[in-house]
Design the sequence.
DNA sequence: GTGAAAGCGCTAACAA
DNA sequence: TTGTTAGCGCTTTCAC
């Protein structure tokens, strides 16, 4: 809302007794304008404090130079990393980034996405809300041929670029690592199985057991929503078994930490008595004591990649969609390094 | 970049053999349009999958319905909390939010701010970059009467709404707490003093020393940009003094942590030999061992408040600026609880 | 209650 | 190399 209305190219034109189109061209470094004229124009523009009105330019060009990003919650390390990476790439490529959070609510997500459409974003990067069950608000982007990229949580039935992490390999690697460290009874604290990510992590766990000829024991798998408190109650339940585990693969770092603290307070040594591995590499995992072994998910890279893909979709007509599975990385820290104590 | 060009109000108008202005009015619920016409129009709009082009509307209205937010780094807990709070309030009030990160670089900040100005944001919420030394790019907002709100790191010489935490009280409280715990030589690892926040924290530190009749020793204050590495080198420098400190008030939690790890590796006990307090209450501070005493800053609330203030500036002509000082809270944890060891 | 016309600030085809 | 003109999609004054 500009009060003392801003100078426009017409003001500059009038000042110099030339046409607005010449000014426009000069300011955009059009080669058809002579150097002298350009310099004159730029000097006057500077003097008048001229700033181009991108709104007008965007309307004219039918391009907003804006990329929309929708995440469940901005204030979560993984998502803010993704945003940070995407913003970085987008800004360097001359795009603005508008961000909204769905709070994992389907209604707010629909609302946001429609608003972004009205704002004519050039493309949309989204990780869908947990609650979202219908996808018409997203299908419309495909139908209208507006670039769309999913990350982390994708919609299987919508064909477009997707970037996910390899949860299966992550789960497998964690389990294999624990076996390699000499742990025999490995429990798994799993997340709700309707989310692909948690489902795949568990599948990796099961696969690793099978490959190592370890009999699967159902009582060693506990499924919940992986809050800090649930980590504690799950461990209590596991330790109450007649044959308790000697290692726990926790579905996330939060439960790994709460489990670890609970066990430590009970006088159980980590990793000597029980090995612990988490998932996601939260910032705290590295700095707690003992430090928590975990799986790193490359959030920043994911954001960079998502931005690259959407910009590719925006700037080329190519429509060969890919699903990029970013590798997970096992970070071995103290909480599972039993070998170093032997 | 719309391919199959979107339906406009003219398309709707043609369909119904009425004028575009009537359609516009109907869609905006203008009372001068009869209910019947409105319903007819809305029905057709729906059927055609019409979505208003906010770009055009914004250009015409000279209002972008967008609030810009600039933070040093999105991927930092405090800042992402602020963004989350601001986004929440802004979205509910019908505003979009565009976000950029300066990476604490003055050049990028200037670049971003100019770009936001070009995009005609209705208002700007910003925490300035550490490196920023000149403020012309921000003064222009005031000059042009575009709403501007500072949070966390404000520019004293620019008069506008500001939301800060009570850094002075925070610094004072930390220092007094250390004194109460029996520490005698308290060092301060300070941030660059052109930033009010760090300046005030140091002022609080100095004031507490004075009030307790403790002689200020200049060699105990080190000023840098508070990165993890600088935390280490600062501590090295402090411990190399002929009369090293027995407590360190670190300007943020990051340096508190790196300092702590460095000291621990040198065999120095925390808090028995040296007490440590940080600032900002990063998520990791609670879970590291020993846990780090710190000052909590209400990030989410700050964001909400900032959004409220900017919307108030946007929607009213009132220009009575306020500086809101949000209270800080001292959180005492293990790293400074020496008394419990005596 | 509805329409005609002008214009927000910019760009680009066409002309000169 | 520069100017003329039209128009992006919307809102709004003025007329009826």
Sequence:
């Amino acid at each position: 809302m500009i009060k003392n209305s801003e100078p426009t190219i017409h003001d500059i034109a009038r000042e110099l007794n030339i046409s607005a189109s010449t000014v426009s061209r000069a300011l955009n470094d059009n080669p058809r304008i002579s150097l002298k004229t350009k310099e004159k124009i730029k000097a006057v523009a500077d003097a008048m404090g001229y700033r181009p009105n991108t709104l007008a330019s965007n309307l004219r060009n039918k391009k907003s130079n804006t990329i929309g990003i929708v995440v469940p919650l901005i204030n979560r390390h993984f998502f803010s990393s993704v945003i940070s990476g995407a913003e970085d790439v987008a800004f360097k490529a001359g795009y603005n980034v508008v961000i909204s959070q769905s709070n994992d609510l389907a209604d707010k997500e629909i609302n946001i996405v429609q608003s972004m459409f009205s704002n004519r974003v050039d493309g949309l990067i989204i990780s869908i809300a947990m609650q979202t069950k219908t996808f018409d608000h997203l299908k419309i982007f495909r139908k209208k041929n507006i670039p769309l990229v999913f990350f982390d949580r994708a919609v299987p039935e919508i064909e477009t670029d997707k970037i996910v992490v390899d949860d299966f390999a992550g789960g497998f690697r964690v389990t294999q690592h624990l076996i390699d460290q000499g742990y025999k009874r490995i429990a798994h604290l799993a997340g709700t199985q309707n989310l692909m990510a948690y489902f795949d992590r568990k599948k990796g766990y099961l696969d690793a057991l099978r490959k190592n000829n370890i009999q699967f024991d159902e009582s060693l798998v506990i499924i919940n929503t992986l809050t800090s408190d649930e980590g504690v109650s799950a461990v209590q339940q596991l330790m109450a078994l007649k044959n308790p585990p000697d290692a726990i693969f926790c579905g996330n770092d939060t439960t790994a930490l709460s489990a670890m603290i609970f066990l430590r307070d009970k006088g159980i040594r980590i990793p000597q008595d029980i090995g612990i591995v988490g998932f996601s590499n939260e910032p705290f995992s590295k700095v707690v004591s003992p430090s928590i072994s975990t799986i790193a998910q490359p959030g920043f890279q994911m954001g960079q990649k998502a931005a690259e893909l959407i910009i590719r979709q925006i700037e080329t007509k190519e429509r060969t969609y890919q699903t990029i599975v970013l590798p997970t990385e096992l970070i071995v820290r103290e909480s599972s390094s039993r070998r170093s104590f032997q």
Observations:
- The two ends of chain B are 69 Å apart (CA to CA).
- The longest helix of chain B spans residues 299-315.
- Chain B has three domains: 9-52, 64-164+299-325, 167-297+330-341.
- The first strand of chain B starts at residue 66 and ends at 71.
